[in-house]
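PROTEIN DESIGN WORKSHEET
SECTION A - STRUCTURE
LENGTH: 721
TOKENS:
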């Protein structure tokens, strides 16, 4: 019998969240129970506007990367985008190649073939060099390719690395690196996918085509006390929608004239040689005259006049009112509300620049939607935590998919998978689309998945989609075969590795299923697992999967020079080594296994997000379900509890395997259909028709013949006391 655990949430916390963010108490209680109480964290759950994502120019190296790519365009250089074979790598390749094509850049793309190692390789570099190429951009790889990047630089090539994997102790030199996991990246959120990093580069490249790229602006505001004895001047410098500097000067009538004059000179110097912006120039002219001696001393553009052309209701708003209306300040302001009027001015200025950008490039929304569909797939495939801006990406990706604006390639694949005609969730993508796309790379044909997204021929896309589905079926069969080999020696491996590691080395294992097999071993034995095979005879290729908070990358780092290369992140990694070093690898694995420390698994309990009284069990619960989409890593599906629910009817499902139950539950004004998977044996033993039961459940949509009805999926059930 499962244990049900309803998380604690104080009434005060729920009331505060509900009132501050104008949401219903059920949503507020779920947020509180899940520990989502910080304003910025709440923002990513409640909002989906792309304005809330982080600015790509926060990457310290972003401007350098943009400038180098623009140089390649202007000088008609050949550019190679080199990706990875998995969903993240293929989608990242697609997003960047699409953008470079839009910019008129001569771009080639490449993903690892069947026998290629992970990451950039010398063969690809040589071939590109022979084709007179000059710039390589890696996506979803490169951070561990120290030797390969050095080889490319020696050949006279420039390299830009975009990656999201954990950097090794030594990283490539003489190149531009954009990786949120670098300690000095400048980026505020490290857990985005490789495709999201490529999307950030694309977003910056598109903005670089605007009239406002690299333009330096200064926003200023002057506040004067009622008796005019105290003046405060606040300024903020902005470049590429980032506040690069801010200053505040206070002028008091009791100060010495020399001190006041010095401050005025400092302020004037700070504001020189930039585009100046003010909010409501008419009311500001007198204040300018008081500070600088003349109302004509400062020439500035009135942003209120300009922005009200886009948003007329702002025509009469003061800067103070802007601050109180700002959603971002509502979420990010602290208890002392230390953000000032200039913060509200900055946020509205960024919105103004975005409006100008959209006006200059009216098709940008469609391209952004198409990119975000791929970013969503990558986040789900690479098990990125669905928090922070990953939620913004996935919400927008799912929104455009469900609006039937599905990008080319993805539409043909989803059609072939019979997914069209119903509301698509993150779970649908994770369980259906992602495995199919991943199969192409696992079967050594990642280029098919990339071609699916990059070809302009609709007939070819449909054929490629069919081929990908066939490859996935083949991958499933190979997985079953690999399991039969692996489990023959798994027990002996555990004994040899101190019961802390399962290592399977078998040349019969297909390389394409090595990662899946490692994950299966983890699931069965509850320890980290490694699988090794020999796709070309001379080089061994391995995959490792983690559990119990064990860090894969730190473990693999300890193999040192045994590896040709290795990479990954905390939960999963890959590596290769020469077959001649097999014994050294095996001995090192035994040696390191003794030092493996695994966190003890806590007793499992079903976590309850909210208790729903019968009268509130209505289809409106689907709105709550949608609000917390997308579900995935660090955001599991909502689990509800209801008590004393009458069972109106119950029947066993499955003619061949009668294992499941379908119940009809009386929830007051609403009758709910409920599915209880693999629990048919509990009927008439633990409960019967006519009983009242306490239920633990999730909500879903059941689509049949185009008709959508809400449905309960039971996690557990107990006869009521």
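SECTION B - SEQUENCE
RESIDUE ASSIGNMENT:
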């Amino acid at each position: 019998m499962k244990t049900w655990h309803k998380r604690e949430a104080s009434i005060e916390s729920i009331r505060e969240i509900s009132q501050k963010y104008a949401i219903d108490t059920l949503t507020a209680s779920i947020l509180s129970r899940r520990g989502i109480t910080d304003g910025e964290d709440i923002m990513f759950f409640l909002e989906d506007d792309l304005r809330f994502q982080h600015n790509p120019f926060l990457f310290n190296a972003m401007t350098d990367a943009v400038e180098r790519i623009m140089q390649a365009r202007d000088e008609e250089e050949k550019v190679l985008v080199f990706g990875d074979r998995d969903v993240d790598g293929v989608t990242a390749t697609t997003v960047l190649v699409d953008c470079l094509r839009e910019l008129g850049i001569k771009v080639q793309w490449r993903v690892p073939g069947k026998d290629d190692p992970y990451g950039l390789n010398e063969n690809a570099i040589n071939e590109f060099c022979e084709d007179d190429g000059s710039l390589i951009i890696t996506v979803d790889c490169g951070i561990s390719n120290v030797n390969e990047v050095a080889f490319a630089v020696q050949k006279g090539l420039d390299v830009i690395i975009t990656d999201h994997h954990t950097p090794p102790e030594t990283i490539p030199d003489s190149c531009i690196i954009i990786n949120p996991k670098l300690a000095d990246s400048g980026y505020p959120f490290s857990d985005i996918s490789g495709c999201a990093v490529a999307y950030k580069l694309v977003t910056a490249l598109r903005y670089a085509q605007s009239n406002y790229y690299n333009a330096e602006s200064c926003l200023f505001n002057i506040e004067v006390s009622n008796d005019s004895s105290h003046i405060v001047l606040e300024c903020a410098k902005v470049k590429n929608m980032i506040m690069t500097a801010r200053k505040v000067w206070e002028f008091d009538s009791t100060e010495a004239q020399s001190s006041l004059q010095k401050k005025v000179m400092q302020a004037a110097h700070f504001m020189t040689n930039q585009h100046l912006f003010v909010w409501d120039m008419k009311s500001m002219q007198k204040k300018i005259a008081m500070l600088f001696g003349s109302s004509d001393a400062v020439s500035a553009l009135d942003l209120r006049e300009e922005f009200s052309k886009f948003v007329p209701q702002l025509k009469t708003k003061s800067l103070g009112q802007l601050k109180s209306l700002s959603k971002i300040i509502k979420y990010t302001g602290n208890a002392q509300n230390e953000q000032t009027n200039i913060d509200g001015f900055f946020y509205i200025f960024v919105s103004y620049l975005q409006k100008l950008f959209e006006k200059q490039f009216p098709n940008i929304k469609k391209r952004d939607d198409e990119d975000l569909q791929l970013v969503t797939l990558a986040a789900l495939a690479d098990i990125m935590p669905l928090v922070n801006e990953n939620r913004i990406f996935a919400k927008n990706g799912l929104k455009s998919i469900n609006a039937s604006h599905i990008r080319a390639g993805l539409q043909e694949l989803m059609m072939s998978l019979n997914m069209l005609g119903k509301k698509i969730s993150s779970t649908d993508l994770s369980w259906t689309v992602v495995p199919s796309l991943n199969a192409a790379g696992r079967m050594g044909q990642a280029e098919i998945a990339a071609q699916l997204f990059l070809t302009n021929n609709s007939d070819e896309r449909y054929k490629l989609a069919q081929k990908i589905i066939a490859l996935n079926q083949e991958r499933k069969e190979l997985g079953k075969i690999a399991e039969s080999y692996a489990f023959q020696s798994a027990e002996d491996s555990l004994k040899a590795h101190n019961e802390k590691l399962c290592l399977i080395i078998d040349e019969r294992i297909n390389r394409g299923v090595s990662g899946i097999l490692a994950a299966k071993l983890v699931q069965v034995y509850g320890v980290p697992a490694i699988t090794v095979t020999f796709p070309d005879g001379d080089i061994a290729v391995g995959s490792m999967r983690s559990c119990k908070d064990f860090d894969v990358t730190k473990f693999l780092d300890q193999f040192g020079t045994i590896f040709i290369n290795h990479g990954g992140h905390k939960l999963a990694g890959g590596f290769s080594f020469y077959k001649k070093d097999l014994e050294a690898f095996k001995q090192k694995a035994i040696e390191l296994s003794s030092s493996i420390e695994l966190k003890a698994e806590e007793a499992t309990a079903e976590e309850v997000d909210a208790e729903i009284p019968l009268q509130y069990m209505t289809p409106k619960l689907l709105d709550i379900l949608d609000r917390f989409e997308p579900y995935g890593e660090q955001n599991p599906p909502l689990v509800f509890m209801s008590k004393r629910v009458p069972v109106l009817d119950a029947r066993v499902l499955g003619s061949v395997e009668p294992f499941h139950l379908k119940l009809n539950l009386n929830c007051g004004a609403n009758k709910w259909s409920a599915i209880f998977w693999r629990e048919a044996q509990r009927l008439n033993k633990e409960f019967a028709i006519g009983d009242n039961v306490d239920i633990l459940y999730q909500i879903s949509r059941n689509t049949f013949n185009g008709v959508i009805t809400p449905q309960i999926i039971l996690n557990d059930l107990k006869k009521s006391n």
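SECTION C - NOTES
Residues 186 and 636 are 30 Å apart (CA to CA).
The two ends are 16 Å apart (CA to CA).
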